[in-house]
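Can anyone check this?
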Amino acid sequence: MRRFSSMSEPCILCVAITGSVPTKADNLAVPITVSEQIESTQEAFEAGAAICHAHVRNDDQTPSSDPERFAALKEGVGKHCPGMIFQVSTGGRSGAGRARGGMLSLRPDMASLSVGSNNFPTRVYENPPDLVEWLAGEMRRYEITPEVEAFDLSHILQAIRLQETGMIPGRLYVQFVMGVKNAMPADRRVFDFYVETMRTRAPRAQWCAAGIGAAQVKVNEWAIAAGGHTRAGLEDNVRLDRQTLAPSNAALIKRAVDLCAKYDRPVATTAQARKILGLRPVAP
């Protein structure tokens, strides 16, 4: 596997703790309640995660955009994981229209932003231009750094355009999401083209990659070896392998930490991650 000149840069590890899809029926380790989420995030933080990518759930495990639940989770993560970057999801499985951004007034460090539509396993993931513009505007209003979730090449190109026009201010951060059924598969040639597209069209930007299901560890390794950042967690994958359920989010982050060691990549501290992404430092 090729190594790149940015190998000395610390690798930011993001833990996607819950998501909108997996439930206790899939893996009892999936944290559903806010208290479970805080505990699971703390374990992943101690294992090396610098970013918490957060969804919240209703009591019946269905996805939610409830700002009160996000507020409680944000407070708990801030208390138990000092300096950790708190990133909320504005994804479409948790709500419709502007309800997807109802928690942005909490002023989290970051928020996910999907800038285009695509197919998901059983539905169309709709991100119409007017909603994208509104979500991006709310993020500017509350000084939140977007993480653009790219499910397709067009989303990467759109993110670069939005950054160039000022709709996404500051440092651009794009995450390649690979392995979603009916969207972009976890294909190495596609991944390499994504990386090259970022390098040539947005050389000052940072990028991350996430793999879904069995593709998680493969995409983790590609990203770490290529000098980027990566995401792991029970949102994307509930197993260590075909036979073994992941015992925790921390176990999936630990696997990414081990891959960083394999490629001589230091794991970013929260302070380093904030500096790399151009985020405000945490007050002492």
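Reply from J.R.: I decoded it. The longest strand covers residues 145-150.
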